[in-house]
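User: I'm putting together notes for a lab meeting next week and I want to include a structural view of one of the chains we've been expressing. I don't have a solved structure, so I'd like a prediction I can at least talk through. The sequence is below, exactly as it appears in our construct file.
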Amino acid sequence: MKELLDQIEKLTSTFQKDAASQLDKGNKAAGLRARRASLELEPLLKRFRKLSLEAANNKAE
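Assistant: Thanks for the context. Below is the predicted structure for the 61-residue chain, given as structure tokens.
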């Protein structure tokens, strides 16, 4: 789970940096990189949700 959180954190910071660059400077390439990062984040976040629910259910038992 720690490794997954590290991956999410890294991609989120990349996304934020590139999205800000597109917004502030009109950098189209940065916008493309931000969109790619958002696509890469989606499966990681779904995996986190699954692992988080499993951990919560295991503690409840």
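A couple of points you could mention at the meeting. The first helix runs from residue 2 to 25. Helices lie at 2-25, 28-60.

User: Perfect, that's what I needed.
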